[in-house]
Amino acid sequence: MKFDTPATTNPIDHLKVVGHPHDRIDGPLKTTGTAPYAYERHDVVAEPAYGYVLGAAIAKGRIARLDTSAAERAPGVIAVVTADNAGKLGKGNFNTARLLGGPEVEHYHQAIALVVAESFEQARSASTLVKVDYKAEPGVFDLRAARGSASPPEETAISGPPDTSVGSFASAFTEAPVTLDETYTTPDHSHAMMEPHATLAAWEGDALTVWTSNQMIAWATGDLAATLGIDRSKVRVVSPYIGGGFGGKLFLRADVLLAALGAKAAGRPVKVALQRPLIPNNTTHRPATIQRIRIGAERDGTITAIGHESWSGDLPGGGPETAVGQTRLLYAGANRMTAMRLAVLNLPEGNAMRAPGEAPGLMALEIAMDEMAEKLGMDPVEFRVRNDTQVDPEHPQRPFSSRPFVECLRLGAERFGWSRRDPRPARVREGNWLVGMGMAAAFRNNLLMKSGARVRLAGDGSLTVETDMTDIGTGSYTIIAQTAAEMTGLPIEKIAVHLGDSDYPVSAGSGGQFGANNATSGVFAACAKLREEVARRLGFNSEEAEFAGGQVRVGNRSVPIGEAAGEGEIVAEDAIEYGDLDKTYQQSTFGAHFVEAAVDVATGEARIRRMLAVCAAGRIINPKSARSQVIGAMTMGAGAALMEELAVDTRRGFFVNHDLAGYEVPVHADIPHQEVIFLDETDPISSPMKAKGVGELGICGVGAAVANALYNATGVRVRDYPITLDKYLDRLPDVA
Amino acid sequence: MTPFTFERAASPAQAAAAAAATPGAKFIAGGTNLLDLMKLQIETPTHLIDVNGLALDTIEPTQEGGLRIGALVSNTELASDARVRRDYALLSRALLAGASGQLRNKATTAGNLLQRTRCPYFYDTNQACNKRSPGSGCSAIEGFTRQLAVIGASDACIATHPSDMAVALRALDAEVETIHADGSGRRIPIAEFHRLPGDTPHVETVLEPGELITAVILPKPVGGRHVYRKVRDRASYAFALVSVGAIVQEDGSGRVALGGVAHKPWRVEEAEIELPRGARPTTERLLANARPTRDNAFKVTLVERTLGSILKQARG
Amino acid sequence: MQGQSHHDLSRRDLLAAGAATLAGSSAGSPANAAPASPGAAPASEARNEPSSAPTPGPVRMPVHLTVNGTTRDLEVDTRTTLLDALREHLSLTGTKKGCDHGQCGACTVIVDGVRINSCLTLAVMHEGAEVTTIEGLGTPGHMHEMQAAFVKHDGYQCGYCTPGQICSAVAVLEEIKAGIPSHVTQDLVSAPPLSEDELRERMSGNICRCGAYSNIVAAITEVAGSPA
């Protein structure tokens, strides 16, 4: 189904199932521990061998000698896989560094060996017997020091050009009566999903099946085939349950490749889970940024010049953190510039983490906007309202498909009680607590991706949906069932949803908050085809047929839908494909975050007291799971604001705090009650579902809202994330 | 994790004797720290002596009016004991500030005392560490030191002791009761139990090979307001940046001990004379010889401000 | 040396009770197994340092557990954690391995009425213990009220921390009932209140990276408020 003109009325608009806060259909499995994750597939393989990964001990250099003989002799060991014996390996499209290092080492904890043994205990024990001598080489590990060496990155579809410019930024900024020129920094972040990257691999002849934990089945299939140098048709990737991803499981990672290689070497199925202390350095992370923001405005708050530059680093061949992306679109301003610069760093591979670009970009931009509002003596909400734009400010001929940004700001301010905020910082005190409020804009683009699905209607009126779409906690199972139920008129209990298998039609997958809208649109397309076939078989005019209550009806004639399938089944497959509506229109999602925070006047401990997000993201297919997406993203953003940082050892080139004790993410006690309000809107330009993504919008801007609340509480402005107490303690009031 | 044999000890004396007689033996009680380190090949015992069956899990009054806490009393049981909550609130508070509910249910009194540092370089076997591998050097001192010691460190080691409980015990003047392989016992004042790193950071306590902790003795209650403040980056389930445990009497006198600043719970009795004068003079003496790094210099300020807050709370 | 005669064990499955290969004994230490001594490595020349000693074979021991009301007789490598015994030997994979180091809480189970991290305890340390896992609380068709409340309040997303959260939640309500104080309990001498602050502190040993905390607290609050 080609979607190239805005949607008109369609069966989804009935909203009998779609739009309702249905409990997740996978809930009973997940809450009873019966949903099987990759490492747990006792049902598909009886006695796998166990693999244990050895990571490189240096950041850059070569392996001078790698002696596996002692490990091979160790009890229970079946095989030791290294680059020496793995055969010729390629590299997938989505990997920067190789997944199995040696003799060259490209980053710390790059996998250099897999020890396969009869038991996990034996594999782990034998891994300590692998003897490795390295010849370390000097590397570049410090973004600040490497900033001067950074150059414009290659333009890609996602990042856009490295530089953009409209009007004359330099002169407009110089002439502006009120200006801000500040630099902000964000650190490296780890996805820290709860399920480690894990894979069970089994060969049958030259055909490979991997049960793994991956967000993008088709990417993993292609990259695994490319890395192993085998035909894609020989690879099956299965990933029905995924214990969190956040971008960290977008790509083929070492667990998959090593399990496959280990299974081949061992001659039997092998399972591998990356050990937690390996994950931060072995896998990808969100790269650190240095961001300079300049804003010039008239005294009435009209922005006349806005400039955003960002520096980040990655391994040779890697890409930038696209932290200036939102600044190209979010606020008006006649004169503007953005620039991205990329330095070569020999730290582990940087890549996408929840809302890549916007998450760190808004952490900086939305502090800058707060600072600018203060300089102007304006309310931060009003300052943003003043600079709203309904068109792409770099390409004014492109309108937004819908942009109720001001509505988000106004509704949020009203519901949060923003008018009670004292704009003068450090004025509100409750006992030992300094209390403040802050807000920020949320913004994230809506991405359109081709997405396919297959539906099977059985004679008993049950329907099975098959697509390689994944559910990484996002609610895909449920919203796909809701979509299929709405389209076929079947009760949701009659819908079975099968996901995450490369044998199924290729979907958008889970990433970039594009999953829900595109995958359900793909199911919409398949169901539309099914409706035609059902109508044809029942002798109905498909234009007139109504599908409701398990029946197909035209006029007075009504037939149970299952009758169309008879003794067999009706199979319909289609994909949603998009025209150029995302070029004609800028498609984005919008929101506003409001936060109340308190800081202990003596110790500087910060606590978030209240959080509210107002979101505009088109039709909300399931308000319950969508709300969960938003509160989860707000929680991750709170972590980014207050505690999350991969600490870089700039001498030895690695992330020091590489486990869940060292890399602190929010716990229950950090997170207060959170409120989410969705604006009631549809966006017919986005898709037949009239929905947009929402899974990343919630993290966009929330860190800055926390930062601005802390500033309002304390009067101390910190521009270096995370905002930990050591950065402002000495500027708090004297309490001695 | 190296293979190990495993036995369940029948009595404290038998356990101590077995440990002394068996090379590579270690006691295991809660196991929450030992197994963590064994999985990383940092601890490599070849024989484990499970002491959980020993009847060391009760809290009894002593003749001196204090409490004798069995070595195997869990952190949860100790923090919840009515006598501890009433008379040694500092200890309850310190325990409850540590770890998580699950870990406190398993962790024991003796094991808590014997926790090893959480220095990330100690935990990463690719990095040089004098504590893990004597003589290999310390990769932490010039590295990421935000969490590490500001006082009492040496050129060989900048690690901190991670226990909250031990800070409270230090302020309470507890004693550690042990038994040797020959059945003889001793009592070690908590002040002498943990060592500073010096040139031998791998030697963390004064325990001798095979020596088994059987109990911790609390002297009779000293009254006063008990306050334990643990300051950390997140609100729970995290190690301290610094912690301050204090007992403040009505006349303003008192005791104070610190966590997160040194290789052992940090207390300087002479500094306590300054308590009635306030946090600044007290901290100046408590941390008189502090040698913080650029990354952790804030801890000195943080101790003073936290103590200031405690004294204010105690007065109020 | 008894423990070294079992190098070739390939089965990790249930063995009949009585198949003990090594009785606990104080003399049972492999004589040739010295602790690994990595020796002095210069800071600039990092290496993955193996132990130079020959590797002793695994030591296996029987252990008898009651898991979710059923007696299970196992023979395990002494190194096997309770978590791996459940997941790999008993195929009870509802209990999750998130970090294997006591840093996340995904492996939380209830042993003899008390919640613990099953990753930081050995199976052989639990001879005769009663273990309740998420599978023992309820099934998809007959959910425990806490499981049902998590579904109703969407107290999970990816589902991986969820069994641990639920086991913790069930135990937390018992801990409050038993009067066990927490870090946020204001008055140590009285019984702790059942408040959202108390629940948040007590649940903090269970990390949810998806960030379902707000909904989890709502689910627990509902169960706590409902008549038993």
Question: Could you outline the blueprint of secondary structure elements for this entry?
Answer:
The complex is a heterotrimer of chains A (736), B (316) and C (228).
Chain A: E1 2-3, H1 27-31, E2 49-55, E3 61-67, H2 69-73, E4 77-82, E5 104-105, E6 111-117, H3 120-127, E7 131-136, H4 143-146, E8 163-166, H5 169-175, E9 178-186, E10 198-204, E11 207-212, H6 217-228, E12 235-238, H7 254-266, E13 270-273, H8 279-282, E14 289-297, E15 303-314, E16 335-344, H9 358-376, H10 380-386, H11 405-416, E17 429-430, E18 433-445, E19 451-458, E20 463-466, H12 476-488, E21 495-498, H13 515-538, E22 546-548, E23 551-554, E24 557-560, E25 569-578, H14 581-584, E26 588-600, E27 606-616, H15 623-642, E28 648-649, E29 654-655, E30 674-678, H16 702-714
Parallel strand pairs in A: 1-25, 2-13, 11-12, 15-16, 20-21, 27-30
Antiparallel strand pairs in A: 2-6, 3-5, 3-7, 4-6, 8-16, 9-14, 10-11, 10-13, 14-15, 17-18, 18-26, 19-20, 19-25, 22-23, 23-24, 26-27, 28-29
Chain B: E1 5-8, H1 12-21, E2 25-28, H2 34-39, E3 47-50, E4 59-61, E5 67-70, H3 75-80, H4 82-87, H5 89-96, H6 101-106, H7 109-113, H8 120-123, H9 165-171, E6 175-179, E7 185-189, H10 190-193, E8 212-218, E9 225-231, E10 242-248, E11 254-259, H11 279-286, H12 298-315
Parallel strand pairs in B: 1-3, 2-3
Antiparallel strand pairs in B: 4-5, 5-8, 6-7, 6-8, 9-10, 10-11
Helix pairs in contact in B: 5-9, 11-12
Chain C: E1 47-48, E2 60-67, E3 70-77, H1 82-89, E4 108-111, E5 114-117, E6 130-132, H2 134-137, H3 145-152, H4 162-177, H5 196-202, H6 213-225
Parallel strand pairs in C: 2-6
Antiparallel strand pairs in C: 2-3, 4-5, 4-6
Helix pairs in contact in C: 3-6
